[in-house]
Amino acid sequence: MSNAPELFALENDAWQVRVAPSLGGAIVDARWHGRDVLRPTPAAELEACNVRKTACYPLVPFSNRIAFGTFRFGDARYTLAKNLAGMAHAIHGVGFQQAWSVHASDANSIDLRIAHAPDEHWPFAFEAQQRIAIEDDTLTLSMRITNTDSRATPCGAGWHPFFPLDTASGETHLHTAWTSMLVSDANDLPCASTPPPQFGALDNTVVDNCFTGWSGSARIDTPHHRISIDANDTLRCAVLFRPAGQTFFAFEPVSHANNALNGNEPPMHVLAPRETLEARMTLAMESLRRQA
User: Fold this and answer.
1) 183-204 core/surface letters (b: 16 or more CB in 10 A; e: else)
2) How confident is the model at residue 2 (pLDDT cuts 50, 70, 90)?
3) Dihedral (C-alpha) 215, 220, 226, 232: value to the nearest 10 degrees?
4) Phi/psi of residue 11, each to 5°?
5) Are the C-beta atoms of residues 51 and 96 closer than 8 Å to each other?
6) From the record, what ranges are coiled-coil (predicted)?
7) What is the pLDDT of residue 291?
8) How confident is the model at residue 3 (pLDDT cuts 50, 70, 90)?
9) Would you say residue 219 has pLDDT above 80?
10) Which of 214, 181, 211, 186 lies closest to 89, judged by CA?
11) Which DSSP letter does residue 162 get?
12) What is the rounded (10 degree) CA torsion for 142, 145, 146, 152?
């Protein structure tokens, strides 16, 4: 008997997108005119319900690392359970490890929801709604997070999309603007900031850093197509991750710096009871014809 999650398909004349609500509300694959825009989930990883090998998953209510799973907020100090094997820190929130319920769906969109009660992974109550939609050549991801706790709470949002690198066909380049790169220490935690370097082809780049002062827009030029990314003002930072020897990279629009709860800036948003935070990003596609 298969353990693979139920998939919901979105499709129009340009896009074919599959979503796994029960697997962290993740996108399994996203193809534009038959070509992978996001790294497709291998069948074996889907069968194993390995959300970290999916094409894209939501980051809520925080992104990246909280140092050793501890932080102070208000008058209290909190210790979180480590949520990934072999990881010394709490990472990427709790949304990607929960099953999302389907509130509504049709051929072009799906609306997902989770309700989180305080536990060892996150001590504050919240509800999150995620919408994944396609229209013409654009894929839109949106999220609305509501503080359902009786206290003011820290809150963050973002997404972790992975993009394939087709080194056999040519180079992939990222074009964007940001003001600082956070330098990481031996524990993969920010310890300083520096002017951002200029990156060449991502195929030849090794990087895993958070960039602050992000403009909110980026362009990815692949050998086949161009992806124009635009985000709303909530998503003030971006993480660029390209591990050595791998045929993918991640470009993650997020709302705050890595380890923001322990003093790195920009900080997480703070929501009063019933207050909401809204995040939105779009991926708009166009063809790139290679020169003869």
Assistant:
1) ebeeebbbeebeebeeeeebee
2) confident
3) -30
4) -155, 135
5) yes
6) none
7) 42
8) confident
9) yes
10) 186
11) E
12) -140
Q: Where are the alpha helices (DSSP H) in 157-216?
A: none
Tell me which residue of 115, 113, 95 sits closest to 105, measured CA to CA: 113
Q: Cα 199 to chain center, whole Å?
A: 21
Give me the count of residues in the chain.
292
- Per residue in 7-33, pLDDT tens? 999 999 999 999 999 999 999 999 999
Instruction: Give the pLDDT band of residue 290 (cuts 50, 70, 90).
Output: low
Distance (Å, rounded) from C-alpha 277 to C-alpha 255?
10
- Copy the structure tokens of residue 276: 């909401």
User: Identity (one letter) of the amino acid at 166?
Assistant: D
Are 189 and 209 in contact, with CB atoms under 8 Å apart?
no
The amino acid present at 287, given as its one-letter code, is S
Burial of 106 per CB tally in 10 Å (0-12, 13-18, 19+): exposed
pTM given for the model:
0.96
Domains assigned to the chain: 54-287 (2.70.98.10)
